[in-house]
Amino acid sequence: MSLLDIRGVSMTRGRDQVLRDIDLRVEPGRIYGLLGPNGSGKTTLFKSILGANDHTGTIVRAPGLRVGRLIEYPAFYGCLTLRENLELHARYLRCPLREVPGLLAEVGLGDRADLRFSRTSLGMKQRLGIARALLGEPGLVLLDEPTNGLDPIGIRDIRELVRSVQRERGTSMVVSSHNLTEIASLADHLLFMRAGRIIRRMDAHEARGDLEGLYATVLGDAAR
Q: How many domains would you assign to the chain?
């Protein structure tokens, strides 16, 4: 059974159509890469999945499915420690506080738990955002540009973390990016978005032979 079944989802904002007839099925234990330039509709689609947008069409979740998410920049309190921030979100989500130490360790922040959020690097902030997304053991996690703004080492570290989490937990993930090289090395399946549409789908291994040519062909001028 699919975890998520999206059929014919469209959305307008003012006079602009920001999502156009989106169809997508998310299966258990897979990583989906959602690829497209800024403004192509990736974040809007994520917010629609979470119920934050009005749209036409249907989005059906598997019964009891919990969806974790890291959407845009992770928002935490700068005056609180990493542990305190995650505990605060655990209370809000009604998740057991006993999850917090293990999650911090899982994302590589176990030895930084008492560091104030305001004193952390961008990579550490993203790791804490991923930990928050994993609260409550979700069956599906949405990660919106989780490596945005990171240097090459930070990108590699987050990519390896996402792989490790998926491998150990079996959690399905949809990860958005505008970087084909990055997402093709992470995902099982690729979805190319442009102007609010999914314009092509393919297995990631098919894309790895000609990443630059594929990106230019599929996304054209919007990729530049």
A: 2
Q: In whole numbers, what is the pLDDT of the chain averaged over residues? A: 91
Q: 138-173 pLDDT, tens per residue?
A: 999 999 999 988 889 999 999 999 999 999 999 999
Share of the chain above pLDDT 90, in %: 78
40, 81: one domain: no
Tell whether 219 and 144 lie within a shared domain. Answer: yes
Integer Cα distance of 166 and 191 in angstroms: 19
Neighbours of 8 (CB within 10 A): 13
Residue 18's Cα: distance from chain center in Å? 19
Q: Mark which of 86, 104, 128 sits at the end of a domain.
A: 128
Q: Which residues of 15-25 are buried (b: 16+ CB within 10 A; e: fewer)?
A: eeebbbebebe
